Automatic annotation (TrEMBL):
Protein name: TIGR03085 family protein
Organism whose genome encodes this protein: Planobispora rosea
Lineage: superkingdom: Bacteria
Chain segments annotated as coiled-coil in the UniProt record: none
NCBIfam families registered for this protein in UniProt: maleylpyruvate isomerase family mycothiol-dependent enzyme, TIGR03085 family metal-binding protein
InterPro entries noted in UniProt: CHP03085 (IPR017519), DinB/YfiT-like (IPR034660), Maleyloyr_isom (IPR017517)
Amino acid sequence: MTYARAERAELSDLFARVGPDAPTLCEGWTTFDLAAHLVLRERRPDAAGGIALAPLAGYTARVQESLKAKHGFDGLVELVRSGPGGVYGLVPGLDAAVNTMEFFIHHEDVRRAQRVWEPRELPADLEDTFWKRLRMGRGLFLRRSPVGVVLHRIGGGVAVGGAENAPRVEVTGPAGELLLFCFGRQAQARVDLSGDDAAVARLMDAPLGV
């Protein structure tokens, strides 16, 4: 089983345990909303543009609500569980290439919004995968950082991104925690930060991610 499929299965199990009204780290979204989002991005490509493009967001939101009304929470969870759907299930390797990060992040969005949680110890090869993605994508993930960012991976590895000619903040942690940090989950990522207090505060409030 690929890591993308494993994260999908574990997230589906967690959805079923916590129910449709549980909080997530996605601002304003319950688990019902998140399940609908995951189904939409795989099975409604006509509406997926609004995930990243503000002018299309209204249509995307309407389709997401229609999916909730049509399938209900349990139906959406089963669609998530039975995936990958759409093009992700048709193109060999696409699910692993794209959904490994997507489902890991959203799995943690549910886990870390609950009252009690602890970070998971990830397999070494999954940590390696996340670090490679961070190194390749740091320019995109950190493009809205108002300060320079130096990522230090525990176990080895350094990557630099964020604003040039600005104070730098050092961010240290395992690759999975650095990934969450760079995708806008700064407050919940288990990392160590060092730098000027004002620069750290600006980085913590920055809208990081894609």
